[in-house]
Amino acid sequence: MTLQAEFQAVVLAAGRGSRMSEVTTGIPKCLLPIGPKPLVWYSLYKLQCAGFSDVIMIVLENEKSEIHSVLEKTNLDIKIDYVCVSEKDEDLGTAESLKLINDKLTSDVLVVSCDFVTDVDFKGVLDIFRMHNASVASLLVQPQPNEVFVVPGPKSKHKPERDLIGIDTQTNRLVFLASASDFETDFSLPTSLLKKHTHIKIYSNLIDSHVYVLKNWVVKYLKSEDSFTSIKGELLPHIIKKQLSKPPKPVNTNTSVINTGDNGDIFAFSKEDELDINIRNTSSYNDHTGDLKPTYHEDSIRCYAHIAPKENFGVRVNTLPSYWWINNKISEKWPQITGDRLEFVPVHPKADVKSNQVDNKCVIWEGAKLNEKTSFKNSIICSNTEVCSFSRVFNSIIMNNVTIKEKVAIENCIICDGATIEGGCQLKNCIVGSHHTVSEQSEHTNEVLTESDRLMEF
């Protein structure tokens, strides 16, 4: 069986990027520039390398044409089936987005977030899913080493979100998942869980990649439940807890029953094939040691985690620090991400580069215009952006359709789509919002320069 026949791939790309709204206002989050490619390209490319020829991608309706136009130029071979979320439903959670395409999902599903950049092969999480005929398998990655980067914008101490993840180290069963912020000082685990899984290790430093493999029955169950909005925050913790539960006793067939309530019973969806059960019962294999309990403790609901090796990396690009970090590391990580299949091309052949001071750490996109007597170091200059003479750009990200006039100095900044920097400006550690104009001869440090009413408070 081919991978495409076994699994359907889904990319979630309808998020607004609310945790980094300073840079996502005015551009689809999935199109944020990461080195020479838009953010979502990295997820699509990993799926293509894994063997998928088709993918369902969920996007906002008013962003579809822009996303389609940008991805058409990236020469991906994978065929994208766009499913649109209407503007009135733009706040749909990840679980609600999956409900939208329920009728399209006829096999088991690999769900990937558009904001995950990694060199991890999806084979590991798919294999553990197959091996145990799992209900859910989740990909977890190790945290990156702490490095000091000055992130543009006001000085602040970023406090990363942490999850508490419980894994049975003997079997890789995922038995506990919660946000550390849900607990003030300590937390307890059910005695029944500790008796059932005697080798539990609680991790507080692993990163949930938002890459999930779901049994098809999980998708059908999701559709029957109106209460779930988030995959990670609600659906997964619910299913993980249900591993401790036992199916309700069969209804007495001699009793007249009008409604058995199967619609809300997860075990009505998770019923295993009788042949699979018989094969397992006649096999000498057992997934655990230390007791005489049957394989998998006879659980029909089974959740697993695959922890990527330490030498791999993965980052969720959903905050300003992570966005800044990956752009500083992308040229270094490129061979790992692409498996040396693609050459890193820092300067697009259709860029108009007249400057002779562009160092080898710069990335210049198609249509960018770098005039004479300009200087660039360790920066990304995106499509249709023009930098006029006597200006310099150091260690910065300049997005699409930006105009930088003469005698401008930009250092350690993010300049968003359509912005204009008038002549003589000096910007350091700043974020300039979408379509904002910075008046000439102005100087700014550690500021967010944007129309305040364009940003939403979260």
TrEMBL record:
- One GO process term, biological-process aspect: cytoplasmic translational initiation
A Pfam family the protein falls into: GMPPB_C
Q: Which controlled-vocabulary keywords does the entry list?
A: Cytoplasm, Initiation factor, Protein biosynthesis
Q: Locate the Mannose-1-phosphate guanyltransferase C-terminal domain: which residues?
A: 345-444
What function does this protein fulfil? Acts as a component of the translation initiation factor 2B (eIF2B) complex, which catalyzes the exchange of GDP for GTP on the eukaryotic initiation factor 2 (eIF2) complex gamma subunit. Its guanine nucleotide exchange factor activity is repressed when bound to eIF2 complex phosphorylated on the alpha subunit, thereby limiting the amount of methionyl-initiator methionine tRNA available to the ribosome and consequently global translation is repressed.
* Family per similarity comment: Belongs to the eIF-2B gamma/epsilon subunits family.
| Protein name per Swiss-Prot or TrEMBL | Translation initiation factor eIF2B subunit gamma
Q: Answer whether the UniProt record assigns the keyword Protein biosynthesis to this protein.
A: yes
Q: Which parts of the sequence belong to the Nucleotidyl transferase domain? A: 9-143
InterPro entries for the chain: eIF2B_gamma, GMPPB_C, NTP_transferase_dom, Nucleotide-diphossugar_trans
